[in-house]
Amino acid sequence: KNIKLISLLYRRETFILSTNYSDLKPNIPDNEEYKLIWHDEFDGDELDRSIWNVELHEPGWVNEELQEYVDSPENIKVENSTLILQPVKKGDKYTSGRVNCQGKKDLLYGVFEVSAKVPTGKGYLPAFWMMPKEEEHYGQWPRCGEIDCMEVMGQDTTKVYGTLHYGNPHEQSQGEYVLETGDLAKEFHTYTCKWEPGKITWYIDGIQYHEETKWHTTTDGKGTAPYPAPFDQPFHVILNLAIGGSWVGYPDETTTYEDQAFVIDYVRAYQKA
């Protein structure tokens, strides 16, 4: 066992030392024109605060969710070259983690990709998504727009959702993909969102499953902004693990906590040269 472990560690360290990250390509077809702009491989022993902000929110802040988002090593940790967002339940109190790179790694257009493994259990909703750097530019949500690159319900970890939110009143465009084999909670999968002027495309493991080219935004007193608003301004990546909510539902007696987590292997962002 020790020989096997040493061999695995050696191969991993050799990969890290020999990898030229600038040569990495997103996991989508015909991607040769994109260059890596920023990334986090989580190879340290704590969250890189030069890239990430930790959000703090009370329970019920959005979507009638149960968790409090806290800045705690119980809930947000970097181990084994992964970012771990860990749910914690103590009595009737739930805590979890939510991080974003607003003001630090905002980009207008590009390809955004995460490799991750999700928790399983009723009421879990891990998400990789994007919001504008300046949410007031076109007005509060949903006028500002929202790009959900990946959401998975813990009670069905064979299905991924990709969603676009916009308009006033709220409208959305949602696609979904069901794995033919495997489980999003048992192995790592890549979730990719390609955002171009006038088109947004969703992929899982390089397979396209949703595309949208029509949206709009309207702001009170200002009318409807020219297309492709609101998706014509810099956005930033958000990673979080929600517990319960009006869409996903709520935990029950089958939901476990200590053995569950949203585990992110890497986050990468690409743009055209």
Q: Mind explaining what this structure looks like?
A:
- The protein is mainly beta and 273 residues long.
- Helix content is 6%, strand content 41%.
- The protein is built from 1 helix and 20 strands.
- Strands 1, 4, 5, 9, 14, 15, 16 and 20 form an 8-stranded antiparallel β-sheet that branches. A 7-stranded antiparallel β-sheet has the order 2-8-19-10-11-12-13, with no helix packed on it. A 3-stranded mixed β-sheet has the order 3-7-6, with no helix packed on it.
- A hairpin with a 2-residue loop joins strand 14 and strand 15.
- The protein starts with a helix and ends with a strand.
- The relative contact order is 0.23.
Distance between the termini: 46 Å
Mean pLDDT across every amino acid position: 92
Q: What is the 3D form?
A: globular
Oligomer state of the chains in this structure: single chain
CA gyration radius, whole angstroms: 19 Å
Q: Poorly predicted ranges (pLDDT <50, ≥5 residues)?
A: 1-18
Strand content: 35-45%
Helix content: under 10%
The beta-strand count equals 20
Number of helices: 1
Q: What letter string, H or E per element, gives the SSE order?
A: HEEEEEEEEEEEEEEEEEEEE
- Could you describe the largest sheet, including whether it forms a barrel? 8 strands, antiparallel
Structural class designation = mainly beta
